[in-house]
Amino acid sequence: MTVRVRFAPSPTGMLHIGNARAALINWLFAKKHKGVFMLRQDDTDLERSEERYAKAIIDDMAWLGLTHQEFAKQSDRFDRYKQAMQKLIDAGRLYPCYETAEELDFKRKRQLAKGHPPIYDRAALELTTEQKAEFEKQGRKPHWRFKLEPGVITWDDLVRGHVEYHGERLSDPVLVREDGAYLYTLTSVVDDLDFKITHILRGEDHVTNTAVQIQLFTALNGGKPVDIQFGHTTLLMDAEGKGLSKRLGSLSLAQMRENGVEPMAINSLIARLGTSLPVEPVLDLETLAQNFDLGTFSRTPPRFDEQELALLNHKLFHIMPYEMVKNRLDHMCTNNMGACIWNVIRNNLQTLKDVKEWETVCYGDLKGAISSEDKDYIKTALEYLPAAPWSIETWSVWTNALKEKTGRKGRDLFKPLRQALTGMDHGPEMKDLLPIIGYDRVKSRLEKI
User: Fold this and answer.
1) 38 forms bridges with which residues in the sheet?
2) CB within 10 Å: which end of the chain, N or C, has fewer?
3) Which of 445, 300, 301 is nearest to 381 (CA)?
4) How far is residue 45's CA from residue 49's CA, in Å, rounded to a whole number?
5) Burial of residue 168, with CB atoms counted within 10 A of its CB: 0-12 exposed, 13-18 middle, 19 or more buried
6) Higher pLDDT residue, 245 or 224?
7) How far is it, in rounded angstroms, from Cα 331 to Cα 329?
8) Structural domains of the chain, with CATH
9) Rounded CA separation 330/324 (Å)
10) Is the pLDDT of residue 249 over 70?
11) Burial code of 406-422, b = ≥16 C-beta within 10 A, e = fewer?
């Protein structure tokens, strides 16, 4: 059996970090099992779906490296959903209901007031042909509900273990709205059947949906159970343990990309959040896939911390080889930021945008800033500046001479020089940076102090 999974976002907004985790879990599972990863746009909500969001989904997925082997849009498949609807009607499993939203809300409130679960009472099944005709005459259009059968619904969840529901305790779900729009519960099942999906991996907020859909799968498959496995992962929380729903705007992938977050920093973090595996920077998806295992996922909701992502982004540069970033550096910089310079500065990058700052340090017309009491020291440093050519030994030769001349040591010896030459009080080791800046620029910067 070839593993076939799908990621099915709705193009009604930008992809956020929670979406990315769901997509990555499916992609890694398919990769691990040499299967097929399908991208499906669930765009049956024609009012809210927008082409700009559909395009953004494609762009964000490509940016993360989550390539798909198959693609489908639900808006291209309305005829297929109509066929499925008719099949369920003919089987007596889909029935029309004429209650208004207000009437249904009133029923729910009455049930809750009595301490009963808000399950649809199936009053529509008692309607006569004449009563239905009268509703139609009044201008009411029916919504259509799937009739659940009583009995135990079970499956062995790949994350949660054995799960059990009782059909009689669930409310018959609406599959088709009054305006004829097909809802997710129907379209998702039809697509999963037609595209032969073998594993449905999604968030735990879909667990009850799965119980309903298992009966729907069977009904659409001629009464025969479908061999699909389910896995429901816990949902991401924020650093304080609260839901992410109110903060998704700041956590969109587009915003993260704009902020300079590396895609593999995101992948490295969300692939391991909520698992027993260590969170660490990983350079490629294939490595993540090798160690991916649904059995490592915990039932405790993982916490997504933007500061942890920022730290991981920083650590990723520590192990990123020059070849991996060369083309991006060539587009960003007007000077040659070759492998030698990259290896010196990469440990000091928070995002790749910081390279521009270090380009200025290495090549720019920079004027450092020092305290007034260090000006005479800088004049002495200029007098003792070693002659070219320079090597990584030059810094040691220069500072040892200054130490002997001035009696300075430690921060008093090194910090004013760093500030004068780079404008900063932190950065790469000066023994590595000094030869890159070069004799002429160092001399010029010291003379400006």
Assistant:
1) 6, 70
2) N
3) 445
4) 6
5) exposed
6) 224
7) 5
8) 1-74+234-318 (3.40.50.620), 80-176 (3.90.800.10), 322-354 (no CATH), 372-448 (1.10.10.350)
9) 12
10) no
11) eebeeeebbbbbbbbbb
Instruction: Say if residues 243 and 265 touch (Cβ distance below 8 Å).
Output: no
Read off the tokens for 207: 């667990």
DSSP-assigned states of every residue in 294-354 = GGGB-SSPPEE-HHHHHHHHHHHHHH--HHHHHHHHHHH-SS---HHHHHHHGGG-SSGGG
**Residue 270: is its pLDDT beyond 60?**
yes
Burial class (CB in 10 A: 0-12, 13-18, 19+), 76: exposed
Q: What share of the chain is helix, strand, coil (3-state, %, to 5)?
A: 50, 15, 35
For residue 326, the Cα-to-chain-centroid distance in whole angstroms is 25
Helix (H, G, I), strand (E, B) or coil at 117: coil
Q: Following DSSP, what letter does each residue of 7-38 receive, concatenated?
A: E---SSS--BHHHHHHHHHHHHHHHHTT-EEE
Tens digit of each residue's pLDDT (9 = 90 or more) over 76-102? 999 999 999 999 999 999 999 999 999
For 189-311, where are the E strands, in sequence order?
199-203, 229-233, 237-238, 303-304
Position 88: which residue type? L
Which residues does 108 contact at the CB level (< 8 Å), separation at least 6?
118
E-state strands within 147-247: 152-157, 161-166, 174-176, 199-203, 229-233, 237-238
How many helices (DSSP H) and strands (DSSP E) are in the chain? 19, 12
